[in-house]
Amino acid sequence: MSTGKNQLFNQKIQVMNNYELMVIFTPVLSEEDFKSAQKKYQDLIKENGGDTVASNPWGLKSLAYPIDKKTTGIYWILEFTGPATINEKLKIQFLRDEQIMRHMITRLDKYAVEYNHIKRNGGFPVHKAVEA
Amino acid sequence: MAKNEIKYLTAIKQEKPKKKFCRFKKYGIKYVDYKDTEFLKKFVNEQGKMLPRRLSGNSLKYQRKVADAVKKARQMSLLPYVTDLFK
Questions:
Q1: Is B17 domain-assigned?
Q2: Is residue B32 one of the residues assigned to a domain?
Q3: Can you list the alpha helix ranges (DSSP code H) found in chain A?
Q4: Number of domains forming the structure of chain B
Q5: Which CATH number is B52's domain given?
Q6: For A44-103, how does the pLDDT look when each residue is reduced to its tens digit (9 = 90+)?
Q7: Which chain A positions have a beta carbon within 8 Å of B64's beta carbon?
Q8: Would you tell me the crossing angle of helices A86-96 and A31-47 to the nearest 10 degrees?
Q9: Which of A87, B14, B42, B79 is most exposed, with minimal Cβ within 10 Å?
Q10: What is the residue range of B56's domain?
C-alpha cells in the first residue's frame, strides 16, 4: 500500500497552467533592445518547459502615476503556458533586470483563456452563441 | 367617516425605483480583464475609489472579481491609486 502511495507522489506529473505576464520596461529602451528582451524571456520560458501562446507589445504608454520618477513606460504582455515552477525563475530574472520597472504574472482561469482567445481573433461572438 | 380617512403628510411614491441588476450576470461576462481600463472606469468614482455594491449593482461574486481587476490595474499603473477629477 505504502509503495503505491509513494509511486503517486514520485510520478512527476507536470501540470501546465495558463499564465499572463505584464512587464513595464523603462522608456529609455531602444526598439532593438525591447525586441531582444522579449526574445530573451520567451527563450527562458521555453527552456523551463513552457510555451508562448501570444505576445502583445503595447509599446510606449503614459503611466497613471510616476514609477522611478518616470511618467512613461514600455508595456509588454505575454500569454504563456508552463509548470508552476517557472514563475519563481522568471521573477528572479525580472528583479535582476534593470531595464524592468515592474512586472506581474497572473494565473488565467478557463474563462480568461476563452476571453483572450476571442479577443485575439477579433470580435465577441459570445452573445450570439447565447441567443442561438 | 372622516376619522377613518388616512392622511399622508407627503405624497406616496407611485413609481417603484428601477431595480438594479448585475451587468455581469445579465450580459454573461465571465472574466473581468484588468487590462481593459475603460471598462474598469465604470466601477470607480472620480477619486479613483471603487464604487460600493449598492451603487454599482454587482453581485458579490463579480464585485470581488472587479475589485481584484482594479487592484491589478493599479499595481501596473493602468489606473491611479488616488486622483482628483478622474474621468
A1: no
A2: yes
A3: 2-10, 31-47, 86-96, 110-120, 126-131
A4: 1
A5: 4.10.640.10
A6: 999 998 899 999 999 899 999 999 999 999 999 999 999 989 999 999 999 999 999 999
A7: none
A8: 150
A9: B14
A10: 22-87
Strand A70-82 with A17-25, pairing: antiparallel
Please state which CATH number belongs to domain A14-123: 3.30.70.60
Q: Among partner residues B28, B33, B80, which is closest to A65 by beta-carbon distance?
A: B80
Q: Categorize the per-residue pLDDT at B12 as very low, low, confident or very high, splitting at 50, 70 and 90.
A: confident
pLDDT, one tens digit per residue, over B16-73 is: 778 888 888 888 888 999 999 999 999 999 998 999 999 888 999 999 999 999 999 9
- Report the candidate in A86, A132, A129 with the shortest Cα–Cα distance to residue A107: A86
pTM of the entire predicted model: 0.78
Does some domain include residue B16? no
Residues of A with a Cβ under 8 Å from any B Cβ are 22, 24, 63-65, 67, 73, 77, 102, 104, 106, 109, 111-112, 114-115, 126-127, 130
